[in-house]
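Section 5.1 Outputs to date
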Amino acid sequence: MKKKWWKILCVVLLTYSILGGLLFDAPRLNILNETIRNLHFHVTMWFGMIILLTASVVYAIKYLRSNDLKHDHISVEFANAGVVFGVLGMITGGFWAYYTWGEAWSGDPKQNSAAVCILIYFAYLVLRNSLQDEQQKARIGGIYNVFAFAVMIPLLFILPRMADSSLHPGSTGNPGFNAYDMDSRLRMVFYPAVIGWTLLGVWITSLRVRTRRITQALED
């Protein structure tokens, strides 16, 4: 039971955040209106993605320091889960953009940076799968992971703010939700949703790592 408490918490938080995001009263804001509910899905998934990719690079560094493949296995599975969340975040963001900006993809600087970020991590996964030797795969993958994370930070948090114009909150003078419209009603669902999605990513990662180790044991 001690090992299952966080999984139970994950289910509870996700259930609460999904129902809360759909049913709780939301502030009526100009243009956004009911679409503000997507905050609890699009933004929280991206928060989860960033946390998972941070865990991935931490384990990549642990592998590079120790050459222990267990760290590499955890690193790549955190990256897999993070990429899934990133793709889901882009899809939900596209729906949101369609109903508020008029089109799902407008070439907004934040959208472009997010797409490049996801493509960099896709390239990381493709690179790993193109190599056969486990140590070589882990070593090259670990170095690339560090590079990808270092590029992700300016892509998501710096370059969009330097663009001349952006419709996305938090860019080029367009205020982010925390300063503009993130009232107590949204926070009641937003923060539990971030924790819930992150725990789901950890859960997926733990299952994938366990499956990988079982497969390796059977092969040996």
